[in-house]
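Hi everyone, sorry if this is the wrong subforum. Our group has a chain we'd like a structural model of before ordering constructs, and none of us has done structure prediction before. Sequence below.
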Amino acid sequence: MDTIDLLEAIGSDASLRHLPGDELARKLEASEASDALKAAASNGDRSPLKVELGREVEPPPQSTQFPAEEEPEEEDVPTIPDEQAL
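Answer:
Right subforum, don't worry. Here is the predicted structure as tokens:
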């Protein structure tokens, strides 16, 4: 089986999908999986798998997003009535 077939099998079989990484890596070793797939399963490093599948590693975004700052509410200032108006 090639890497795509093995990924499909893992994705469709809940017993494989929920195995701890080292156990999944042992099962992949028995099925002659690629080193990249075994590395992704055992230590979570997906970089070699992305290279194997021909997908470039995307650089992180250059900017971060923060929520917009809220403008402070204007305080209601009580007005003092004019003495002539009284």
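For your construct planning: The chain has a mean pLDDT of 79. The two ends are 94 Å apart (CA to CA).
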